[in-house]
């Protein structure tokens, strides 16, 4: 284990109670990072604290004002944050029609607006320091362009692949069941039944993430699909959409003012 020093980079990670967040925090500590680990239930972070992490209670669905106070508190611990990892989130299963508006909004408040508010709370500090990297799962394109002049990098690390974590076991189902959606239901049942047999190794994934975001002198992409199956599925996704664009190009173009 490499001991952290006052010159060691600081990494803040959300959603560290289990899974990728917890393992990434542990690896960063082993490599000598100064780690700020967060979770809603701070007692779940006891093991990380024993290893040397600073721990903070944090709910990404809190109000923007509350999150701003959290960011100020986190920044004051070491006087800097060099890497912000927005990891908190969860899967909501079922056909769209089977999820109530309330269930959908709860997920959006966690996975989207929580990420947005957390990153925005740290941006004033990043701009002033003119050096930071943020790993986010959406909005990267816009942030990357807006923050380029401040040397703040935003990277979307896309993890749609299958890794042996607790994600499948903790997937939330919509409260409504519509029998006609047999294919969608089977997809979820099969997904959860395969939990523990996924091909993706989370230990390899967290090493790849930490190596990637800390590599110096490399032109970072806007997004990085993580996982063998993620690479193939996203490649297929984009190629299918490009094929659709070309197929219906005649319907898309030719609408400029004469």
Structure report:
Helix content is 46%, strand content 14%. It has helices at 19-30, 46-51, 64-78, 101-129, 140-147, 182-193, 202-214, 228-247, 249-252, and strands at residues 10-13, 34-39, 54-57, 83-85, 92-93, 132-136, 152-158, 172-173, 223-225. The chain is an alpha/beta fold. The protein contains nine helices and nine strands. The chain has one domain (10-252): Rossmann fold. The strands form two sheets. Strands 3-2-1-4-6-7-9 form a seven-stranded parallel beta sheet, with helices on both faces. A two-stranded parallel ribbon has the order 5-8.
Structural class per helix/strand content?
A: alpha/beta
Rg calculated over all Cα atoms: 20 Å
Give the helix level as a range of percent: 40-55%
Mean pLDDT: 88
By DSSP, the count of extended strands is 9
Query: Domains counted in the coordinates: how many?
Result: 1
CATH superfamily: NAD(P)-binding Rossmann-like Domain
Main sheet overview:
7 strands, parallel
Helical stretch tally: 9
Summarize the structure.
With 258 residues, this protein is α/β, with parallel strands linked by helices. The protein has helices at residues 19-30, 46-51, 64-78, 101-129, 140-147, 182-193, 202-214, 228-247, 249-252, and strands at residues 10-13, 34-39, 54-57, 83-85, 92-93, 132-136, 152-158, 172-173, 223-225.
What attributes does this structure have?
258 residues, alpha/beta, Rossmann fold, two-stranded parallel sheet, globular, SDR_oxidoreductase, oxidoreductase activity, NAD(P)-bd_dom_sf
């Amino acid at each position: 284990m490499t001991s952290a020093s006052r010159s060691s980079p600081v990494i803040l990670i959300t959603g560290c109670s289990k899974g990728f967040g917890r393992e990434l925090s542990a690896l960063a500590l082993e490599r000598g990072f100064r780690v700020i680990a967060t979770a809603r239930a701070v007692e779940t972070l006891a093991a990380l604290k024993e290893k040397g992490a600073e721990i903070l209670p944090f709910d990404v669905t809190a109000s923007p004002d509350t999150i701003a106070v959290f960011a100020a508190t986190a920044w004051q611990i070491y006087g800097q944050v060099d890497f912000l990892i927005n990891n908190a989130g969860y899967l909501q299963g079922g056909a769209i029609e089977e999820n109530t508006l309330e269930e959908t909004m709860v997920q959006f408040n966690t996975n989207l607006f929580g990420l947005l508010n957390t990153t925005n709370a740290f941006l004033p500090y990043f701009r002033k320091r003119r050096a930071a990297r943020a790993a986010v799962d959406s909005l990267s394109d816009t942030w990357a362009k807006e923050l380029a002049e401040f040397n703040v990098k935003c990277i979307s690390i896309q993890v749609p692949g299958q890794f042996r974590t607790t994600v499948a076991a903790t997937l939330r189902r919509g409260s409504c069941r519509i029998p006609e959606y047999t294919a969608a239901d089977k997809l979820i049942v099969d997904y959860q039944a395969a939990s523990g047999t996924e091909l993706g190794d989370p230990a390899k994934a967290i090493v790849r993430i930490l190596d990637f975001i800390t590599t110096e002198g490399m032109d970072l992409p806007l997004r990085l699909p993580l996982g063998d199956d993620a690479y193939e599925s996203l490649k297929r996704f984009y190629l299918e959409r490009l094929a659709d664009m070309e197929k219906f190009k005649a319907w898309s173009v030719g609408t400029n003012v004469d």
